[in-house]
């Protein structure tokens, strides 16, 4: 291994290819081999695993994933990285695809992967963290776990008491663990805030009716369930909420996944 993640090696690559970190793509490059090792460890990768990485950058994490896995598919939006990865990554089991991950047909990609065991491991660009997690969780695939380095504040929200659409989705598909905090100093350039590693286990695919119910319930966060649910249940809203034993003056963030599943049942009866 080249150890791209060592600070002086990363700096040398950035200098050699005349690369400046682009804020619009959330580029903060990891320069701590120990943290990279710990991230990969959380994913329980074996020589039978295919890892999907989102945003390889100059390949610091990719190199470790390639060392542990059978196969790595890495999606990168920044065209400048292709040349760097082609020359610096000395791994034959990495496939770099230059594409915006949000535009990738994930279902199709996963269906063509030969390995049975498929997971996602990523140091996520912060500007698009929740959208990417949502995409991985709501696309029906056999991806069964995701390890991600994200903003600490977002990690605390996802694992905390107050619920969001995404944390309810996680409760439905499986569970989440806050693995560790990562300080600012292990990145070039250093971000303004601390980061954290999370691991999500996905035991089942998302229910599309639950997505619809969550979107309606959280549409206007300050409005009550009685207000937001009218979009789905019209003049039956009061009756539906009563049948589900949900106080109509509560807000969506005060409810839990069991409440939402009762609403899903009511919605299904009316479809
Ligand atoms: N994996 C590298 C590391 O750990 O040092 C880089 C991580 S950096 C925080 C995020 C990476 O995601 C950048 O390489 C950036 O160009 C890439 N990226 C940003 N938006 C993306 C998108 N929509 N699809 C794919 N890659 C994206």
UniProtKB/TrEMBL annotation:
The UniProt similarity line reads: Belongs to the class I-like SAM-binding methyltransferase superfamily. rRNA adenine N(6)-methyltransferase family. RsmA subfamily.
Protein encoded by which gene: rsmA
- What PANTHER family does this protein map onto? DIMETHYLADENOSINE TRANSFERASE (PTHR11727), DIMETHYLADENOSINE TRANSFERASE-RELATED (PTHR11727:SF7)
Source organism per entry reads Sharpea azabuensis
- Report the protein's function: Specifically dimethylates two adjacent adenosines (A1518 and A1519) in the loop of a conserved hairpin near the 3'-end of 16S rRNA in the 30S particle. May play a critical role in biogenesis of 30S subunits.
Gene3D superfamilies the record matches: Ribosomal RNA adenine dimethylase-like, domain 2, Vaccinia Virus protein VP39
Highest taxon in the source lineage: Bacteria
What is this enzyme's catalytic activity, as reactions?
A: adenosine(1518)/adenosine(1519) in 16S rRNA + 4 S-adenosyl-L-methionine = N(6)-dimethyladenosine(1518)/N(6)-dimethyladenosine(1519) in 16S rRNA + 4 S-adenosyl-L-homocysteine + 4 H(+)
Name this polypeptide is given: Ribosomal RNA small subunit methyltransferase A
> Can you say where in the cell this protein is located?
Cytoplasm
Q: Which GO terms describe its molecular function?
A: 16S rRNA (adenine(1518)-N(6)/adenine(1519)-N(6))-dimethyltransferase activity; RNA binding
The root-end lineage is: Bacteria, Bacillati, Bacillota, Erysipelotrichia, Erysipelotrichales
